[in-house]
Design brief:
By secondary structure, the protein is mostly beta strands. Helix content is 0%, strand content 70%. The chain has a single domain, classed as Porin. Strands 1, 2, 3, 4, 5, 6, 7, 8 and 9 form a 9-stranded antiparallel β-sheet that branches. The chain is globular and about 50 Å long. The termini are close together.
Amino acid sequence: MHEILRVNVSLEDVMEVKGARRSASMVLFSGTAEGPYFHGKVLPHGIDTQMRTEGGPMTLSARYILEGTDDLGKSCRIFIENNGTENPGRAVCTRPVIVTDSPSLAWMEHAALRGTVEGTAGGVVIHILADKD
């Protein structure tokens, strides 16, 4: 597998509710995206919903749209739904789903994708990996 897309996320706001045994957070974010097939930015209102149950792993579900240019230099958009779970070592592994209006990137809609999340100052970097035919 190789990296097809890297999303550099800047955290904007966090809203949180802490219950007796569970907490929920909604993380608003912006950012940029780059890779061998696409360059662009995160459109406004990207959101990551995180849930944590006492003693259990954190789960996340992020949804956002990227706008930029594909590998042919044509304008396009990519919708990403990225669901994941925190592993025992606190690493987060995800299963991204992509929808795009770029004919050149349509293969991403059917590719077996996986993602990793890397913490940075003020945000995270999401690495999306795939085997490209």
